[in-house]
Amino acid sequence: MIRVLRVIARLNIGGPALHVANLTRGLNPARFETLLVTGQIGPGEGDMSDLARDLNWQVIPDMGREISPLADAVTLIKLWGLMRRYRPHIVHTHTAKAGAVGRV
After folding, report:
1. 9 and which of 23, 50, 89, 97 could share a cystine (Cβ 3.0–4.6 Å)?
2. What's the CATH number for 2-103?
3. What are the backbone dihedrals phi and psi of residue 66, each rounded to the nearest 5 degrees, phi first?
4. Alpha-carbon span 77 to 53, nearest angstrom
5. Is the pLDDT score of 104 beyond 80?
6. For residues 99 and 63, is the Cβ–Cβ distance under 8 A?
7. Structure confidence at residue 11 (pLDDT)
């Protein structure tokens, strides 16, 4: 089974959240195990986390849109630990923040 770790900064209203949910649902569950990792929705943003209710997903509360050296370092450490436990074959990142921490 191929393990896919999909990372997005947040599931706010917009195309990336729809894209991530559809990609995750579209993979053959007999061949792929997917874990979706997302951050918190920011103040004043619409929430589309209902799209993930039937998916295997986890929230890293410190991961958000804003640049914050401390929160970003905490996110990096938490994501690194999650990767060590999940041991993904593929890391698929979406949005700038998720791409930055996912690539490190």
Report:
1. 97
2. 3.40.50.2000
3. -65, 150
4. 25
5. no
6. no
7. 92
Distances (CA, A) of 56 to 15, 36, 91: 20, 6, 15
Confidence (pLDDT) at 95: 76
Task: Give the Cα separation of 83 and 80 in Å (integer).
Answer: 5
What is the secondary structure of 20-32 as a DSSP string? HHHHHHHS-TTTE
- Domain boundaries defined on the chain: 2-103
Other CB atoms within 10 Å distance of the CB of residue 47: 14
Q: How many CB atoms lie within 10 A of CB 51?
A: 18
Instruction: Give me 55's structure tokens.
Output: 């998916």
Residue 74 identity: V
Between CA 39 and CA 32 the distance in angstroms is 23
Complete DSSP assignment for 44-96: T--B-GGGGTTS-EEE-TT--SS--HHHHHHHHHHHHHHHHHH--SEEEEESH
Mean pLDDT of the chain: 90
